Amino acid sequence: xxxxxxxxxxxxxxxxxxxxxxxxxxxxxxxxxxxxxxxxxxxxxxxxxxxxxxxxxxxxxxxxxxxxxxxxxxxxxxxxxxxxxxxxxxxxxxxxxxxxxxxxxxxxxxxxxxxxxxxxxxxxxxxxxxxxxxxxxxxxxxxxxxxxxxxxxxxxxxxxxxxxxxxxxxxxxxxxxxxxxxxxxxxxxxxxxxxxxxxxxxxxxxxxxxxxxxxxxxxxxxxxxxxxxxxxxxxxxxxxxxxxxxxxxxxxxxxxxxxxxxxxxxxxxxxxxxxxxxxxxxxxxxxxxxxxxxxxxxxxxxxxxxxxxxxxxxxxxxxxxxxxxxxxxxxxxxxxxxxxxxxxxxxxxxxx
Length: 352
What we know:
Layout: H1 2-37, E1 43-49, E2 52-58, E3 75-76, H2 81-94, H3 124-128, H4 139-145, H5 156-164, H6 179-193, H7 197-206, E4 227-228, E5 234-235, H8 244-247, E6 250-251, H9 253-263, H10 269-277, E7 282-283, E8 288-289, E9 294-297, E10 302-309, E11 314-320, E12 325-331, H11 336-351
Antiparallel strand pairs: 1-2, 1-12, 3-6, 4-5, 7-8, 8-9, 9-10, 10-11, 11-12
Helix pairs in contact: 1-11, 2-6, 2-7, 2-10
């Protein structure tokens, strides 16, 4: 019997190994094919399944460099930052600093004075699920002023003018993607913890997970990729400013897989917080939203995902808690169609 059990264990190990090899080969084939069709767009992908990590990457750091993009190459994760911020919000709930249904009134900086029509109306969960009804930053105008660094001119005074002049929430309770909402969440975190957003994300996510290549204010490193706009022109990385909690973190495939591993582990602080973010806070005929994460379901699966687009890079992160897998895709060009097509191909042919 002992021999039979040992034989069964070996068979199971071989089967698992073969299954893992099959998945990684298929993913690599999809990424390689995409790169061959788009040789000017660098790609870095990280995948995790049952704690086993896999990486693939294609392209150079920049046109003049001979250095290949790899798992440690730095990208702008852009609005994927929002799921880090929503995880911090959920951690603050666990820490008894806030509740998701608290109104934002008492947690805002003093510069913000809500109109009487807005008082005791907007909840923290409304900000995090993009249904606050608050007007947003006008990115079109900002891009006209400075196409390389459009958020540079956004200050607390800019935000205060937008919020203090708002007298009505015209679409409160309806989904409308919001940068200002996540900027406010960052400021709410600063108030309840008495620290800067930079210090908070470092102390509660970056340092505990040893994500040494996830950077905030200082990202002048040798393994940084170069961003490109949709026409192929060089695009600068966004500098750190007040909107950081909405989209200014820089990271790589390796660190984001580390983050996914923590998210999928219900015993970690980040994993416990992630479960809170996965609760449905908004639903209509088109979408379901948790805190910062899109929830997509079919007959067999529920996946949680978030996309990110800076002016020069695109990214997407996705995971399935039940099947215990997660994936991060990073592109060095702003190309939302390509990143979505890559995820769709991988999901439909490998993960579904």
